[in-house]
Amino acid sequence: MLELSSVTKRYAHKTVLHTISCRIDAGQCFWLVGRNGAGKTTLINILADLIAPDSGVVNFGGLRYEDDELAIKRNLGVLPDKNPAIPQLTGWEYLQFVGLLHELQTDECLRRVKSLVEYFFDETDDAYKRIGTYSHGMTKKIGLCAALLHRPQYLILDEPFAGLDPVSAAKLVRFLQSYLSPERCIFLSSHDLGYAQKIMTHIGILEGGTLQFVGSAEEFASSKHTLEESILQILQPQESNIQELNWLL
After folding, report:
1. Do residues 170 and 234 both lie within one domain?
2. Which structural domain range is residue 135 located in?
3. Alpha-helical runs (H) found in the chain
4. CATH number of the domain to which 62 belongs
């Protein structure tokens, strides 16, 4: 179980997140939706302990960063917006380095790295190239492998489909559908409705620094509107006037 209670974050005189509260139980995939700049990445950075909230509590199955930071991070896998992969290392070297951080035995680490690379990479030889030479999509794949290497109970993904080709994105969808289990939960931020809706069980709509909707996919579904239309009703209740661009059109 992952729970946020009244989480608030301010920068200067602007409140980016205002009393955010939600709960993701084991076996659930929570999809966070919002405009650019809505605070999604800020919230993920708080969950990953990259920044601290000004107030509120983040709870991982009864554990809090203030008292149990190491225990939480042993069970936490994060793919952040800004991938921390070390560009001077090859993919293999970086994943082995991550394995050392998680205290994996050498043989077990190599076995896991090999299987992850074979699944996510079209050409396994790419894992022997320096990360600094990778495309955006390849760097994303290495970040995914690093986030999964220690079989985390909590998986937090920020725009995991960005930069992936359709084949790789479909592989990731299939993997996440299989990875979700009664012992695990996924927190997903993505602008890609097509892929995200295939995985999510619950949805949160972030607008104006607050969660305007939190609930299951069934509660959010509407027989009269598509998923995209339902989201836009919250994020953009008034349609933009395209007539203002007549000079261009």
Report:
1. yes
2. 85-151
3. 40-47, 65-74, 91-101, 106-120, 136-148, 166-179, 193-196, 217-220, 227-235
4. 3.40.50.300
User: Which of 121, 151, 181 delimits the end of a domain?
Assistant: 151
Tell me, yes or no, whether 118 and 231 share the same domain.
Answer: no
**Which of 115-119, 159-163, 193-197, 221-225 is the least confident region?**
221-225
pLDDT band at 139 (very low <50, low <70, confident <90, very high): very high
Last residue of a domain, one of 127, 151, 175: 151
| CA gap 136, 139 in Å, rounded | 5
**pTM of this structure:** 0.90
Q: What is the mean pLDDT of residues 90-112?
A: 96
Residues 131 and 89 sit within 8 Å (Cβ to Cβ): yes
Which strands sit side by side in the sheet containing 55-60, from one edge to the other? 14-24, 2-11, 55-60
Measured in residues, the chain has a length of 249
- 130: its two tokens: 């320096």
Give me 241's structure tokens. Answer: 């006037």
Amino acid at site 244: E
Query: Within a domain: residue 80?
Result: no
